[in-house]
Structures are given as structure tokens and as C-alpha cells.
Design brief:
This protein is α/β, with parallel strands linked by helices and about 200 residues long. The chain is about 35% helix and about 15% strand. Helix 2 packs across helix 3 and helix 5 packs across helix 6.
């Protein structure tokens, strides 16, 4: 789908309209608490850098800054509307899984929330392999497989089974440590057997 599809009306419909919205600031805050806590557990220190791929309007920005005011946040999204309106204010830059911008050598926390099912396999596989090598801490890879009902804009999703997601994540170098959280190659030795997914 063209990036221009993700305009103000799109975000008004799916993030602000009470009849259609798929998320709220309260829910994002809960997810941020979880991701930061898991990241800091494995890192053994506070999270300092975050990369949020498919960040939309940067909804995670404020939730993360509330938890860690000195944290450096970088959001990546293909929407021209998002870049124009939130680029400078929330440090959101243009890009996507299929066209990643220049990245820092490493990030403590990687976020891909509510976006993986909009990415075609070829882009997802390549993008995740690149991102795994930039991950110093934990990735929050929120994915819902075809076996589960997805709320929101389902017109352009790529349905994948849970087994297929597991295969893609494993191939990229991600190891499950529970609740949508994964470590990359740098920390995989810290994950105990009972913390790992099936």
C-alpha cells in the first residue's frame, strides 16, 4: 500500500475514534512498562536507546519518556503525514522494513508494535535480520498470527501462522523470552530454558 494511505484520517480512525480505535495511551503505557522492564532485566541497567519501527505517530514516545526521560528515541515510519507532523517533535524519520534508514550501531530496545502483519514476507525477513544485528537488548515484536482475530485495519494484512512467525524470528536470530519480547544474538545466552518460547 502507498505510504500516503497513512494520513491523518487513517490515524484518526484507528487511534482516536472510540468506535474503531485499536489502542489507547493507557494500553501503550502498559506495553512500554513491560518492554522497558524486560529490557532492563536482561541488560542489567536502564534502557538508554530505543528504535521503534512502524511507529506511526510515535505513540510510544511519550510513554517511554515518562519512564526514562533521558532515553533517546528514534521512530521510523513511511507516512509523509507522520514525518511532517511528528518528525522533529518525536524524532521520527522516514523508512520501513523494506527501506530501513541508516541505523545506529546498537539499540537497547527495539519496538515493532501492531505493524508486522502489514509487512510482506520478503521485506520482513530481510528487515528483521538487519535489526537483530543492531539489538543490544530486547525487542518487543508484537505479532498476532492468523489463528487469532486481529482488530483494526485488516484490509491489507499478510496472514501468517504462529509457526511461520516463529520460523522468521528464529531465522533472524531472535529468541523468545515471553510476552512478545525477544533477545537478539547479543543476549541469547542469558535466557533460561523455561523462559524460552516453545
Amino acid at each position: 500500500m502507498p505510504a500516503s494511505r497513512y494520513d491523518k484520517a487513517y490515524f484518526d480512525t484507528w487511534y482516536r475514534d472510540p468506535k474503531n480505535r485499536v489502542s489507547t495511551p493507557a494500553l501503550i503505557s502498559k506495553k512500554a512498562h513491560l518492554a522497558v522492564a524486560v529490557g532492563e532485566y536482561y541488560l542489567g541497567r536502564q534502557v538508554r536507546t530505543v528504535l521503534d519501527i512502524g511507529c506511526g505517530e510515535g505513540q510510544w514516545f511519550q510513554a517511554l519518556k515518562t519512564l526514562r526521560p533521558r532515553l533517546r528515541y528514534t521512530g521510523v515510519d513511511p507516512s509523509p503525514y507522520v514525518i511532517q507532523r511528528f518528525g522533529k517533535r518525536r524524532n521520527v524519520i522516514s523508512g520501513s522494513f523494506g527501506d530501513l534508514p541508516k541505523l545506529s550501531p546498537s539499540y537497547d530496545l527495539l519496538i515493532c508494535s501492531d505493524c508486522l502483519y502489514y509487512v510482506p514476507d520478503n521485506e520482513l525477513i530481510v528487515g528483521l535480520e538487519i535489526l537483530a544485528h543492531h539489538l543490544a537488548g530486547v525487542a518487543f515484536l508484537e505479532a498476532y498470527p492468523a489463528e487469532e482475530e486481529v482488530e483494526g485495519d485488516t484490509s491489507t494484512i499478510y496472514p501468517r501462522t504462529a509457526a511461520h512467525y516463529r520460523k522468521i524470528f528464529k531465522r533472524a536470530g531472535f529468541l523468545s523470552c515471553g510476552s512478545h519480547c525477544y533477545v537478539g544474538p547479543a543476549l541469547r545466552e542469558l535466557v533460561t530454558e523455561l523462559e524460552k518460547g516453545l
